[in-house]
């Protein structure tokens, strides 16, 4: 009878329980159910779509650092600005400044005013013998000019781009005095384009020198 009871207890233990690594006793049916739940969870995780599409970069420490699309766009914008910055004057300096020393008389209509004393001519675009600037490269340029008329004189000059007037410079001296007129313009030019300052309407005119009349320009932005 005692041997029969021992056999029954042994069969019950083998059929009902099994040992696990964590030291807990689970039935075979419990283990099977847990396995199914685990597989279902893993399957659900694979099908989940993240709310934000994040990129992952690796730093030197080996940790993952996530950054949003907004940060990526900001980096891209910075790169574009840096590329544009390289197109500034550093790539090819163009600048000139010339003064008028001698008085210029008998200046006819549409005749160039000569600024013969060159202070600066970076890029070699200004030609003092003709008072003409020829763009050595395409870009956006700033030009300025100041004209002084003789005592009791009158000057109506114009700045021209490829022969076409873009602005007027006027001065009129009264009561035996001088007068000055100035203009500044921004012009988009192609390589080989010309800019000059010329007498406009008054024939047989005179332009005062003495470093009181000037013509200057410089490249702002390459094209």
UniProtKB/TrEMBL annotation:
Cellular component GO terms, alphabetical: extracellular region
Main localization (coarse): secreted
Domain C1q: 92-223
Compartmental location: Secreted
Keyword annotations: Secreted
Domain of life of the native organism: Eukaryota
Signal peptide: none
SMART domains for the chain: C1Q (SM00110)
InterPro entries referenced in this protein's UniProt entry, alphabetically: C1q_dom (IPR001073), Collagen/C1q_domain (IPR050392), Tumour_necrosis_fac-like_dom (IPR008983)
Bias type Polar residues, positions: 15-27
Record carries keyword ATP-binding: no
Region annotation Disordered: where it falls in the sequence: 1-27, 48-74
Keyword Secreted: yes
Protein's name according to its UniProt entry: C1q domain-containing protein
Species for this entry: Dreissena polymorpha (Zebra mussel)
Taxon lineage: Eukaryota, Metazoa, Spiralia, Lophotrochozoa, Mollusca
